[in-house]
Amino acid sequence: MTLLSLTNMQTNIGEYAVLHDISLTVPEGGVFVLLGRNGAGKTTTLRSIMGMWRPSPGSVMFRGQDITALHTADIARLGIAFVPENMGIFGGLTVEENLVLATAKGKFDRDRLNRIYRLFPALEKFWTKQAWSLSGGQKQMLSVARAIIEPRDLILIDEPTKGLAPAIVDAMAEAFREISDTTTILLVEQNFEFAKSLGRDMAVIDDGRIAHAGSMADFVADRALQDRLLSLSV
Amino acid sequence: MNAIPSTQGSVIVKAAVLVIAALLLFAPFLFQDVRSLEVAARICVFIVLVASYDLLIGYTGIVSFAHTMFFGFGAYGAAIALKQMGPGWDAVALGAVAGMAVSLVVAVAVGLLSLRVKAIFFAMITLATASVALVLASQLSQFTGGEDGITYRSPDIFKTATKLFVDEEGKVVRIFGVRLNGKLAAYYFVFFTSLAMFLFMLRLVGSPIGTVLKAIRENEARAEAIGYRVVAYRTFVFVIAALLASLAGTVYAIWLKYTGPDTTLSFAIMIDILLMVVIGGMGTMWGAVIGAVLMVMAQYYLRDLMGTAAEATANIPLLPEVLNPDRWLFWLGIIFILLVYFFPKGIAGTIAQKGARA
Q1: What contacts 24+ positions apart, CB below 8 Å, involve A161-170?
Q2: How much is the average pLDDT of B82-98?
Q3: Which entry of A84, B13, B194, B313 is 20 to 30 Å from A230 by CA?
């Protein structure tokens, strides 16, 4: 079943056309990975879905509803969480306050909170610390935790492993695997090893266009395609 | 409770504020002269005014120059009602409600129309709006008394001649030498209404809404990405701050029994509020208390202090000239620069931070 579909999406930032023609279908469940070189338009795609940059022309449909013209806050309230590349946490607030902000009624669901403590034990330890004092990995954990503190249908995650230590990356992969059992993840990633261990479906963006879309298993099996689209040696 | 994390420094700040609160509570008994009571009442009102302004600039990152305009709406509302209807509580209530109603309408209009634009443009719009209000107060002299303002009587219970308690001989009762008369009632009216408003603001910034405001101040786009309509929240806090400033204006008008452009609407008061917020520390309700106390005390007593210092140094060349009381604004400026230099996050913010490192 289709959860999210992008149709002929074009996004301009100022005078520059960043996305030329993005059409994509994200099925419900599992991890959908967006791959591509630096500057290909991956982050712009996520931000366009969130309404931070308005695509025109083109449309974004979520659960059959056209959300192209909706305000970012309303899109978030539909059940789409965004974990940006720079983590997007509020450094001046405590870990607890960062998570409270993402709850619907300012109160925690005990089961969800316990799940977060289990996935990211550091957050329980630094519960009352201000977020700026956390390490890079802990900030990323907080950012992901904020996305799952309430039930969501879709989580957009932008390059979560960037600059993280291998041990943290492994922990993050484990967390995403568990989260994807109940929530669809649209993951932008340049770390192909990380991406292929998680992804069920995938697409490659090149120069603001979808260059390839299909299953991750097929893409992993086709080395020539990988080399052509990603210039990667895997 | 607020932006100050629980540290040794924050305990010091909160203790200082508690001492100030105690001094204000017992001010009529501790400082038994008219001027001291005047200063104490002004401090109470300005704590509310500064704290409500801090909701804007400190908690939400909104720079407004229209705060004294809302203060003026409340003051003029009470003043016009008391002048027209006579000194009764019905006039006070009507004036307060009218002032708040005007503040509500203007704040919603300015907020919804202007809070979408960049901070500098919003600041300019509030400056223009406040200028219009100031000109109108001067021009509509048949209602506002023009440049001269309005003099009126406050409710009878606040008249100095009113005896709150009398002894067997019919004389007013004294406690620790202080007469329990209408002036005392007026002071406690100012104190307790200001305290109630301050506690309301403390509750607000400690609530989930306060956390949202701090998040908006830190990064608007991030706040929107997790589901908060920034314009709605900014308009909400702008309206709340306007209503509180308006109520503070009503309270001050009842205390002063005079309302004019210089006591409520002037840009000099707006600058004072800004200085008090900066001195106390932005984003800390406690800082508003410290900033208001220091600034009002300096405004009232720095001249006296300099006069005494000039007399004491009369035999030393140059010093009496430098310490001439007429130069008090110059010294106030020097003190402000030193405070900003040594307390870059305001007194409350810097002390709390140092406590955190200790």
Answers
A1: A161/A189, A161/A191, A161/A194, A162/A85, A162/A190, A163/A136, A164/A136, A164/A137, A164/A140, A165/A137, A168/A137, A168/A140, A169/A194
A2: 94
A3: A84
Sign of CA dihedral B172, B175, B177, B179: negative
Instruction: Give the closest of A76, A97, A100 to B225, CB-based.
Output: A76
Q: How far apart (Å, rounded) are the C-alpha atoms in residues A211 and A208?
A: 9
> What tokens does B105 get?
């309408």
Alpha carbon B19 to its chain's center: 19
Residue boundaries of the structural domains of chain A: 1-79+152-234, 85-151
**Domain B8-357 falls in which CATH fold?**
ABC transporter involved in vitamin B12 uptake, BtuC (1.10.3470)
With an 8 Å Cβ cutoff, is B224 touching chain A? yes
CA–CA separation, B292 and B272 (whole Å)? 9
Inter-chain touch B226–A76, beta carbons under 8 Å:
yes
Interchain CB distance below 8 Å, B226 and A106: no
Report the C-alpha gap between B297 and B3 in whole angstroms. 26
Q: Which residues contact B209 (CB under 8 A, 6 or more apart)?
A: B233, B236
List, in order, residues 6 or more apart from A218 with CB less than 8 Å away: none
Under a CB-based contact definition with an 8 Å cutoff, are residues A190 and A197 in contact? no
> Cβ separation of A101 and B212 shorter than 8 Å?
yes
**Residue of chain A nearest B218, judged by CA positions:** A90
pLDDT tops 90 at residue B195: yes
DSSP A39: T
pLDDT at B133 over 90: yes
Here the tokens at position A18 are 């960043």
Contact of B345 with chain A, judged by CB distance below 8 Å, is answered with no
Region label for B193, one of left (φ > 0), alpha (ψ between -120 and 50) or beta (otherwise): alpha
pLDDT in tens, B203-220: 999 888 899 998 998 888
CATH number, domain A1-79+152-234, options 3.40.228.10, 3.30.429.10, 2.40.160.20, 3.40.50.300: 3.40.50.300
The two tokens of residue A169 are 């990356």
Nearest beta carbon to residue A93 from set B211, B221, B229 = B211
Measured CA to CA, the distance from residue B358 to residue B354 in angstroms comes to 6
For residue B213, give the chain A residue with the closest CA. Answer: A101
pLDDT of residue B6: 60
Any bridge partners for residue A34, and if so which? Answer: A188, A203
Residues of chain A positioned with their CB less than 8 A from the CB of B214: 90, 92-93, 97
Chain A residues whose C-beta is within 8 A of a chain B C-beta are 50, 52, 71-74, 76-77, 81-82, 84, 88-94, 97, 100-102, 106, 128, 130, 146
What pLDDT shows up at residue B179? 83
For the entire predicted model, the pTM comes to: 0.85
